[in-house]
Amino acid sequence: MKKTTDQCLGAETAAILESISDGVFTVDSNWRIMSFNRAAETITGIRRREAIGKPCSEVFRASMCEADCALRHTVKTGKPIINRSTFIVDAEGRRIPISVSTAILKDKKGRVVGGAETFRDLSLVEELRKELEERFQMGDIVSRCAVMRHIFDILPQVAASDATVLIQGETGTGKELLARAIHSLSTRKTKPFVAVNCGALPDTLLESELFGYVKGAFTGAANDKPGRFALAEGGTLFLDEIGDISPALQVRLLRVLQDKRYEPLGGTETLLANVRIVTATHRDLSAQIRKGAFREDLFYRLNVVKVELPPLRKRKEDIPLLVDHFIARFNRLQGKVVTGVSPDVMALLMAHDYPGNVRELENILERAFVLCSSGSIERVHLPPEHGGRESSPPSEGNTIAAQAHSAEAQAIRMALERTGFNRLAAARALGLHKSTFFRKVKALGLTLPEHDGRSRRKST
Amino acid sequence: MKVALTTWNERISPVFDAARQVLVLDVQNNQVVARHEETLPGTEPQAQAERLAAIAPHTLICGAISQPMADLLAAKNIRIIAFTAGSVAEVVSAWLAGALPNPALAMPGCYGRRGRFRGQGCGRGMGACFGGRRTM
């Protein structure tokens, strides 16, 4: 006959176990459940009477049961395990994250008669962790830097308005991603998002592309063609590289922004444009105005809400977050199991200046994914220009000192390359005295090329 | 027809997501005509699903399985009889006799639940069966 919890543990112990919020079960020497408290019933969704007498692995159903059972380890070694993380699978197929602790059960004579396992439901902790992660994400943009957090904070309000937005930022900072985030947070999200790169098309083509044309407007215009304004009707039109458009097109665009009306090329009918305009540029439009290359009145029409995206070199704290984000995405897209980057690679990535910004980091990792399909990305997977010449050192460890050394070595290498291996210029670029520079080169074990870029003489 | 059973210590493995061993049976006219064992990575869901799909079983008989993993296998057109417990011999006999799902061979708390695991192509009331293909 199956024993009740009271019979197994004594009334007092059983009463205590019933009152706690952690799940507790005990097993006999055959790994069959002897007792199962109330919290264990709640967390697993299995009633006590169904659990008692069954193999613990079939009741508990933890991912660690088969290959790395914590209780088995404790019974074998006599050492308890505290707070090991795993997940269990309930009858609905939900993965419930838990932490597990184990202990040995002995009889009065000190003989091992089984084991006890306590487990805590970490679902709430996991939810909070995810919520915290979401705070660092807006659409497809991830960041924890203060400037970006401010953008994330104001973005819902910006999106809710219908005001024209001007996004300024260097190439690769995620201007289009931000425009998409604005669209997806706005009331226009169910309508089209149409992106046009104004810098990619010649002026005349861009005009017909934006406003469309009617049949017979020019040679070869055999049919009416709707423009991007018409295609984006009710939605958002994103005009990238707006600083590159000609003065003539600036005038036409100004009219659309002022009157919300336009005429297709060759057309006589005026069309209404119900479109929210988001623009972006990598140029300094104020400087363009001073040079007379950009209309001031158009600038003020576009600059209703201005969002400045900082370059990646000014938010390097985001690099680890972005690396995780891209690795998760490439794993998902390419069906690979890359776990992360080695400390050595992370140090190199942190030391780089990223003239191509986030896009450049994404490309570095995409390239590494071509060569690496599982485990962690090592230096050997990086392109040579990012320090991928050498294979991974055996075990530099991930100490701060090792990472600092690696970053210093990378900075020196890059400074040398930039200055054509002129030692003095490289030292100056790094803000180091030449003797400090040479001491570091020696300490880091770097080999300098035979020729000094300054003198073209053989270095001594 | 190929049937795969995830096994551990002569019993059905407790969690498919972490299972490492598969017994593959070739069944013809309700008789096992060949059997062999295969291994699974037991670590990453995508790799686990890919490996099982490479074995190409018509049906998988396993213990607990998470819903995302079940969805991955369903997408690969593998029929699943999940939340099965018991010795491998008992489960194989029950399968050959057409007696799976079976309350006597179900994991605790998994039989007769009104959950999402209730029969997609299997017996009503068994909280353990779903999949991309129907039985023969």
Question: Would you write up a description of this structure?
Answer:
The complex is a heterodimer of chains A (460) and B (136). With 460 residues, chain A is α/β, with parallel strands linked by helices. Chain A folds into three domains: 5-124, PAS domain (Beta-Lactamase); 141-310, P-loop containing nucleotide triphosphate hydrolases (Rossmann fold); 319-418, Helicase, Ruva Protein, domain 3. Chain A has helices at 5-9, 11-19, 38-44, 48-51, 56-60, 70-77, 123-135, 146-160, 175-185, 203-211, 228-231, 247-259, 285-291, 296-302, 319-334, 343-351, 357-371, 400-418, 423-429, 434-443; strands at residues 23-28, 33-36, 84-89, 95-106, 112-121, 137-138, 141-142, 165-168, 193-197, 212-213, 225-226, 236-240, 261-262, 271-272, 276-281, 305-308, 337-341, 374-377. Chain A has a five-stranded antiparallel β-sheet, with helices on both faces. Chain A has a five-stranded parallel β-sheet with strand order 9-12-15-8-16. Chain A has a two-stranded antiparallel sheet with strand order 6-7. In chain A, helix 12 (247-259) packs across helix 14. The longest helix of chain A has 19 residues, at 400-418. The relative contact order of chain A is 0.07. Chain B has 136 residues and is an alpha/beta fold. Chain B has one domain (2-131): Nucleotidyltransferase, domain 5. Chain B contains three helices and seven strands, in the order ββββαβαβαβ. Chain B has helices at residues 45-55, 67-75, 88-96, and strands at residues 2-8, 11-12, 21-28, 31-39, 59-61, 79-81, 129-131. In chain B, strands 1, 2, 3, 4, 5, 6 and 7 form a seven-stranded mixed β-sheet that branches. In chain B, a hairpin with a 2-residue loop joins strand 1 and strand 2 (11-12). In chain B, helix 1 packs parallel to helix 2. The longest helix of chain B is centred in the middle third of the chain and has 11 residues, at 45-55. Chains A and B meet through helix 5 of A and helix 1 and helix 2 of B.
